[in-house]
Design goal:
The protein is mainly alpha-helical. It has 9 helices and no strands. Helix 1 crosses helix 2 and helix 6 crosses helix 7. It is elongated.
Length: about 170
């Protein structure tokens, strides 16, 4: 079947009938709309643009599945609203308090060798500077598992401790 010759409403009906190629054509047609809607949500607290694009495709799929031509809206209008609403929901979920530690964390790999060599104080400063709460909390929890009193954490030589752990693993 030549999907390029089909109208958007026809493609939506074919998607409802389970034809994946129809959705591929529909998504190709609406990729520009999805990217434009994603730009509306750009910012420091928003998900990455690729995540927004994926949410947009989910919104487009939902539009294709639920579109009813007799309800008065054209498919492009309906799809635009569904894509926007899906992205808006993703942004709200992304910024919710439940996801905040994940959204604000800084991987230890990104902290750099200097932070690891400097010890826990540098990691705490990194948390304050970059919001790496989750990663630092995990690091603090690891230190607490060693049952080291908090006042002694300043005297820990991180590089030496890592070397000792590596040596123990090789034995």
């Amino acid at each position: 079947m030549d999907y390029q010759a089909c109208g958007d409403a026809q493609l939506a009906a074919l998607v409802r009938a389970g034809q994946g190629e129809a959705f591929a054509e529909l998504s190709a047609r609406y990729l520009g709309l999805i990217r434009a809607k994603a730009k509306l949500f750009e910012g420091a607290s928003a998900p990455e643009k690729e995540d927004l694009w994926q949410e947009g495709l989910l919104g487009l799929y939902a539009a294709a599945i639920s579109y009813q031509p007799g309800r008065g809206a054209s498919f492009p209008t309906y799809a635009g609203v569904c894509v926007y609403n899906q992205m808006a929901s993703a942004v709200r979920r992304h910024g919710s308090s439940g996801n905040r530690p994940l959204n604000e964390s800084v991987p230890l790999e990104d902290a750099g060798e200097a932070a690891v060599e400097a010890g826990p104080e540098a990691l705490l400063e990194l948390r304050e500077d970059h919001g790496g709460n989750t990663v630092i909390r995990r690091h603090e929890a690891d230190l607490l598992l060693l049952e080291v009193p908090a006042e002694e954490l300043h005297d820990v030589d991180t590089a030496q401790a890592l070397e000792e752990l590596k040596a123990e693993d090789q034995v």
